[in-house]
Amino acid sequence: MKHVFARVTGWMLLFLFMLSLTSGAQLIKGKVIDATSKLPVEGVTVTVLPAKIFAFTDPMGIFSVRASEESILNISFSSAGFESRVLSLSALKNASYQVALDARAVELSTVTISAHGNNPYKSISRTDIALRAVNNSQEVLRIIPGVVIGQHQGGGKAEQIFLRGFDADHGTDLRLEVDGMPINMVSHAHGQGYADSHFIIPETIQSTDFGKGPYTASKGDFATTGYVDFNTKNALAENTVKLESGMFHTFRAMGLFNLLNAKAKEKQQSWYVASEYRYSDAYFDAPQHFKRFNLFTKYNGKVSAHSFLTFSATGFRSEWDASGQIPGRAVDKGLIGFYGAIDPYEGGLTYRTNVNTQLLTSLSNGDIIKNQLYYSNSHFDLHTNFTFFLLDSINGDEIRQKEARNLLGYNGSYQHIDNIGTTRLNTEAGLNIRSDMTHNSELSHTVDRFTVLDRIKLGDITELNIAPYLCETFNFKRHLSISAGLRFDQFYNKYNNKLCNDTILPGIGVYKVNAHTISPKFNFYYHANDNTQFYFTTGKGFHSNDARAVVAKNGYQVLPAAYSADLGIVFKPCTNMIVNTAIWYIYLQQEFVYGGDGGFIEFSGKTRRVGFDFSGRYQPVKSLYFDLDLNYAHGRSRGNAKEQNYIPLAPIFTSTAGATYASKKGFNGSLRYRYVGDRPGNEDYSLTAKGYFIIDAVINYTKAKYEIGLVINNVLNTKWKETQFATETRLKAEQYPVNEICYTAGTPFSAKLSLAIKF
Question: Are residues 66 and 158 located together in one domain of the fold?
């Protein structure tokens, strides 16, 4: 009893001590808006001077900071892309605690480093998206430092993604979202985590929020190497019509149009529509007849004194023919050219409809409640041939992967900010619910695209993921921030097998497997001075596996864990330069992966990767911007003999860099390179996936009402292989199969002109 009394007394004394610390401080609350759109601005750095006490605006543009009266001389407001403002406390009171920031050209000098930012990549992402032009949907992913992508299906299929020594296939180990809605598809016909981001119109992207490693409690499935969340614009500054025409019969038309007038903007209401159509025959010997249509609309508005509603809808459709992957020996023998094809019937059709609604509510005490509902209906139909005549010497090995999917989900969170003395506490509790339902997910052996010879898999997939999470962040004055998070994921997998001759499952029927995992996170940020931040982040992540694989294995290793850590530094050696560098480690448990291209389950053991990332940004003058990313990864499988433990296709050294000249009026543009080094094609490195070095250029002439542009891909006309796979294949006239590198050729020199009219 004495011990209990002593503990209670101790807690009461501590509470009274904390109260005494806050007695001389006052809470300053306010709101920051965009002077043009009148909409809230998130992520603005609010600094009390001279005490240098930091705070950041939340999604409602609201900030709160506690400081003693004698420590408040001025309050500074700064954010990349906005004119900084410094106000006295009396001036802030006279403005009813609302601050309007004017837009300005992005400058590195306005980027601040603080331990309370809680994302060491935010300063990089903000400047990149503003200063580096995004010319097509592929550039959307290339904007992320360290990400390498490859296309091997005529532009219609999701890109193959490489990051931190991972061949993440089409998204298995990188989580992709747009406005909080998932892009990755679980148990997809073409493979786990399939992430087709082509429904995003590049001109609608406002910013990207990305992080490397599984260190964010709100990000679960697929966030092994990290996550990317694309944020579309809430409002348009002007209407735009853009026309593009290029080599290889490439055409594109794009439009952005406001649907509300200036009076609605004053009431913080915005609604716009965007659309694009693209056609290209591409550079292959056989025309690709690629067609894509996108339609996007978004409403964002203040619906009450403390609530904002955002509604968006997407319509997307792609159709194409493809040349696929070809074996090097077919080119060497003169059977086809470097840009040729073996199976002329490869190609696909895909379409997707999205509806996304978010309600953001600010309570009287400053707490934030987020509620989001989203729905997606998608269809996918792909015909490929990777092995040609290996299995069927008469008809060939062409396969069809097809599915129809309904995806329904909910994201909710509650954010509470409190102060204990000079320590700021940020508590976030959230819930993610996602339900995927596919109908007639199919893998079939076909010929000439239309004739089905044999069905390999056919069934309906139902997958439900329920995940509550909690994250607590302690901001100790201005020097230190510690964040601890915990996430619980529960999965319910069900597969209704409709094939009696399924090669893995014993027969027709419903198969079920449930599984769960707990993922702790820990992030440590130390603000050494105004120009330097050190960080150590560590945590556990995972990626789910295809429901067809996990039911076949009775749920064994359904959710293989990834254990990861980063040790890094963000610093500004001078006001117009910022550097982010880190060493990292990832250990991945053994896993089962559904081999979607062949209809079988592939087993891989434990893997370990260590690496180094470097990102540097330099702006010597306002109009000139340099960026450089260097990435090294050393990966090996565990438990295999030395020299037999290479990870196939895992990138070792990659780099991108560019120089951008930005001018509001007149000539502007960029010159960029991307480099990928040689990497192992198979486990013993007897086959090599050859690297490449490509240079691209963009030149624009910009005026207030129009812009003329020229985009040149592969300036040096380098002959290169964009995607490569070690594959056992057999050609029509061959008696025996050959295991070698098969590849899809990368684009040769190509040019595209554009004209944009703004009004």
Answer: no
Six token digits for residue 575: 């006001």
Please check whether residues 705 and 620 belong to one and the same domain. yes
Residue 538 resides in a domain: yes
Phi, psi angle pair for 92, to nearest 5°: -65, -40
Give the three-class secondary structure for 484: strand
Query: Where does residue 81 fall: left (phi above 0), alpha (psi -120 to 50 degrees), or beta otherwise?
Result: left
Write out the DSSP string of 516-582.
EEEEEEEEEEEEEETTEEEEEEEEEEE----HHHHHHTTTTTSS-EEEEEEEEEEEEEETTEEEEEE
CATH number of the structural domain spanning residue 369: 2.40.170.20
- Return the SS3 of 5: helix
- The answer to whether residue 56 is domain-embedded is yes
Q: Which residues contact 420 (CB under 8 A, 6 or more apart)?
A: 18, 21, 22
Residue 458 is assigned to a structural domain of this protein:
yes
Q: Beta-strand (E) ranges in 622-720?
A: 624-637, 653-661, 666-676, 679-680, 688-689, 692-702, 706-713
Residue 109 belongs to a domain: no
| pLDDT given for residue 515 in this prediction | 93
Torsion of CA 56, 57, 58, 62, to 10 degrees: 140
What are the residue ranges of helices labelled H in 630-708? none
SS3 273: strand
Amino acid (1-letter code) at residue 455: R
Exposure b/e, 449-472, CB count within 10 A at least 16 = b: beeeeebbbbbbbbbbbbbbbebe
The total of structural domains in the chain comes to 2
Report the DSSP pairing between strands 25-34 and 98-101. Answer: parallel
Could you report the per-residue pLDDT of 562-571, keeping only the tens digit for each?
Answer: 999 999 999 9
Q: Where are the alpha helices (DSSP H) in 246-287?
A: 262-266
* Encoded amino acid at 120, one letter: P
CATH assignment at residue 59: 2.60.40.1120
Residue 288 DSSP one-character state: -
Classify burial at 261, counting beta carbons within 10 Å of its beta carbon; exposed 0-12, middle 13-18, buried 19 or more.
exposed
Q: Do 226 and 292 lie in a common domain? A: yes
Report residue 269 as tokens.
Answer: 């209401």
Whether residues 81 and 230 fall in one domain: no
Backbone angles phi, psi at 93, to 5 degrees: -65, -40
Provide the phi-psi class of 10: left if phi over 0, else alpha when psi is between -120 and 50, else beta.
Answer: alpha
My answer on whether 162 and 56 are in the same domain is no
Q: Which of 104, 133, 164 is the last residue of a domain?
A: 104
Residues 681 and 579 occupy one common structural domain: yes
Domain boundary among 47, 70, 104: 104
Tell me how far apart the alpha carbons of residues 341 and 360 are, in angstroms, rounded to a whole number.
51
Strands 290-304 and 269-280: antiparallel
pLDDT at 45: 84
Confidence at residue 597, expressed as pLDDT on a 0 to 100 scale: 55
Residues ≥6 apart with Cβ < 8 Å to 59 = 40, 42, 360, 368, 370
- Name which of 668, 722, 729 is nearest 161 in CA terms: 722
Neighbouring-strand partners of residue 683? none
- What is the strand order of the sheet 72-78 is part of? 53-56, 45-50, 72-78, 85-87
First to last CA, the chain: 77
Task: Give me the pLDDT at residue 657, please.
Answer: 95
Q: Residues of the chain whose pLDDT is less than 50?
A: 1-23, 593-596, 598-601, 603
Q: Are residues 94 and 200 in the same domain?
A: no
pLDDT at 509: 94
Instruction: For residue 633, give Cα distances in angstroms to 582, 583, 613, 638.
Output: 12, 10, 9, 16
Does one domain contain both 606 and 671?
yes
The domain of 603 spans 122-356+363-758
Give the pLDDT confidence score for residue 596 in this predicted structure.
45
Give 747's DSSP letter. P
